[in-house]
Design a protein that fits this description.
224 residues, five-stranded parallel beta sheet, alpha/beta, 50% helix, binds 2'-deoxycytidine-5'-monophosphate, three-stranded antiparallel beta sheet, globular
């Protein structure tokens, strides 16, 4: 079997991970795996069930009854929750926060870990998340820590949400970005941090095209 390539991309929310990772995968014909979407799907289920998201026991109790599917439709990753395509529903601010909260529980992380690793065993992947280089794929071919200033990440997220018709203010989005950063970096289980052997790519002040160029060149040079 041909050797697979795995590119781990971690970083805070709004740094452009998913857009850039998807494009990098398409450029090379690799599979793009968005692990945040898996946590979002668990978060959606917790919201629907009215579970106390800060209680590990309450969230863990949902997992046995959960059928979580990840399938590629026309090359795009779709998430299925008990057979329902929830790919659009998991993109709201409410579910962003729910995902951040349920992802703090080790039981939830353990539940998703093997599925994530299996993708990288079977395919060449670009996988993005918070703990890909540190926990999920410690032997990834290349590890990137993609980041940008909080104000700029909030600005991008604000533009994205308002374009989709969500009624939010910039200040509220910035507060959410900072709260999620604090949740994601401050938790005990697999906190967001750069792996010791990760290359940091800072996209502050860079247009999308320039950010992609920088990422693509960084990956190429590490693979060579
Ligand atoms: O990448 P995202 O914004 O869609 O992720 C949603 C939340 O899921 C994020 O706040 C933290 C969590 N997450 C995580 O803990 N580990 C990952 N590998 C991916 C996401």
């Amino acid at each position: 079997m041909e050797k697979t390539v795995s590119i781990a991309i971690d970083g805070p929310s709004g740094a452009g991970k998913s857009t850039l990772a998807r494009r990098l995968a398409a450029q090379h014909g690799w599979l793009y795996v968005d692990t945040g979407a898996m946590y979002r799907t668990v978060g959606l289920q917790a919201v629907r069930a009215g579970a106390d998201m800060d209680s590990e026991q309450a969230v863990a109790a949902l997992l046995p009854g959960l059928s979580l599917g990840l399938r590629y439709v026309d090359g795009a990753q779709h998430m299925f929750l008990n057979g329902e395509d929830v790919s659009g529903l998991i993109r709201t601010e409410q579910i962003s926060m729910a995902a951040s909260r349920v992802s703090a529980h080790p039981t939830v992380r353990a539940y998703l870990l093997e599925t994530q690793r299996a993708f990288a065993r079977e395919h060449s992947v670009v996988m993005d998340g918070r703990d890909i280089g540190t926990v999920v794929l410690p032997n990834a071919s290349v590890k990137i820590f993609l980041t940008a200033a909080a104000e700029e990440r909030a600005q991008r997220r604000y533009a994205e949400l308002t374009a989709r018709g969500e009624r939010v203010t910039y200040d509220a989005v910035l507060a959410d970005v900072k709260r999620r950063d604090a949740n994601d970096t401050g938790r005990a289980a697999a906190p967001l941090r750069a792996a010791a052997d990760a290359v940091t790519v800072d996209t502050t002040g860079l247009a999308l095209e320039d950010a992609f160029c920088l990422l693509s060149k960084t990956v190429q040079s590490r693979l060579a």
